Amino acid sequence: MQLQYQLQQLAKFLNGFKSERFVPASAGNIQKELGLAFDTIIAPTEIIEQEVTVTKNKTHTTQTTGASRGQIPDNVRREITVIEPLEDVSGCEKIGELMCETLSWNPGEIFVKRTVRPQYRKIDVNGKEKIIVAALPDRGVAKCMADPALLAQVTIDKFVDHKPLNRQLDCFGRSDIRIPYSTIADWIKSVGTVLHPFAPVLLNEMFKSNYWHADETGIKVLDKKVKKNTHQGYFWTYMTGDGRLIYYDYQPGRGGEYPRKILKDFKGHLQADGYSVYDDLNIKEIVVFFCMAHARRKIFDSLSNDKARGEYALTEIKKLYAIEEVCRVQELNEEEIKLKRGLEALPILQSLGEWLKKEYEQMRPSTAMAKAFAYSIKR
């Protein structure tokens, strides 16, 4: 039986992820008759400013210049902003303009945003000459060919919409914009550097919530100091219960010292996957509890080892998910959800817990289903 279970897990791994679908045996005929599916629930490029001289006949030529000289075609739309000096320039002679161009972004369009800053010569009462020109506005990442709108879009596309940088470059290419991969990669790095000081602000906002999720995900890390091999790192992830705020904390290990640094100022309920480190935090203000999805998955993965017990447990858990679905569909508020869970879900949980303990006493501890039951009983 153990070898059969291991073979099943290997096949599941090789075939890729599939929905963990469970249909109670009693629903089989209904499903066939009605056709129902019972589902569970780059280095920043320096900007080159061009000085345009105004001739006495007041005619001059403006050329396309800026951060990406030779890269931005003339047919790309230009949006021109003129910034006048704050100082009074009445009576001054305009002698030229300083001009820079950055790539910007509107949804579905990449375009050039041209900023023009007129230069003025002013002669004071002593006959001294002074050049007056407005300062460039702050742009977050200094001397970068991409302005904040484009940097924001590239970052959101990568980290929120999971659009790799090479695909983003392909999209730019359809607008005749050619940007080296190293350049856009450095844009992402620069954005991270600019946003890093906001990390403590994000944590302080998250501390206002008394319900967090926590998890740690392993990741292979390339290190320029290590030429041949990667090393194992971890993204420790913390999310507020409403899913609104997430904090990522990269660390080189999986020991308890890493979450303790973040959670020492947290007060409330922490939901995790059962990793012993969370139990060993020893922080009085934190109540650690666990995830029904993890408990369900372990039973589901062990069905081939003990189908009868596994199907009963999954059927009971399915009832819990059905209660949560009703709460969602009816848009119940927090107090209404708490009342419904107390009346309907709590008896199911208590009955299932007692049944798990009773059945576990009759099972061989080394079997897959016994281990799955032990995971839930302990937690």
Radius of gyration: 31 Å
Q: Any idea what the shape is? A: elongated
Task: Determine the number of helices (DSSP H or I, runs of at least 4 residues).
Answer: 12
Largest sheet entry:
5 strands, mixed
* N-C termini distance: 26 Å
Helix-and-strand structural type: alpha/beta
**Range of strand content:** 15-25%
Quote the average pLDDT. 85
Overview of this structure, please?
- The protein is α/β, with parallel strands linked by helices and 379 residues long.
- Among the domains are: 50-139, no CATH class; 152-196, no CATH class; 207-290, Nucleotidyltransferase, domain 5, CATH 3.30.420.10.
- Helices cover 39% and strands 21% of the residues.
- Strands 1, 2, 3, 4 and 5 form a 5-stranded mixed β-sheet that branches. Strands 8-7-6-9-10 form a 5-stranded mixed β-sheet.
- The longest helix has 27 residues, at 334-360.
- The two termini are 26 Å apart.
Primary descriptors:
alpha/beta, 21% strand, 10 strands, 5-stranded mixed β-sheet, 39% helix, 12 helices, 379 residues, Nucleotidyltransferase, domain 5, single chain
Question: What is the structure about, briefly put?
Answer:
With 379 residues, the chain is α/β, with parallel strands linked by helices. It has helices at 2-14, 28-34, 148-159, 165-173, 181-195, 199-206, 257-263, 276-279, 292-301, 307-329, 334-360, 368-378, and strands at residues 50-53, 78-82, 93-106, 109-123, 129-132, 211-221, 231-240, 246-251, 268-272, 286-290.
How are the SSEs ordered, and which strands pair?
Elements: H1 2-14, H2 28-34, E1 50-53, E2 78-82, E3 93-106, E4 109-123, E5 129-132, H3 148-159, H4 165-173, H5 181-195, H6 199-206, E6 211-221, E7 231-240, E8 246-251, H7 257-263, E9 268-272, H8 276-279, E10 286-290, H9 292-301, H10 307-329, H11 334-360, H12 368-378
Parallel strand pairs: 2-4, 6-9, 9-10
Antiparallel strand pairs: 1-3, 3-4, 4-5, 6-7, 7-8
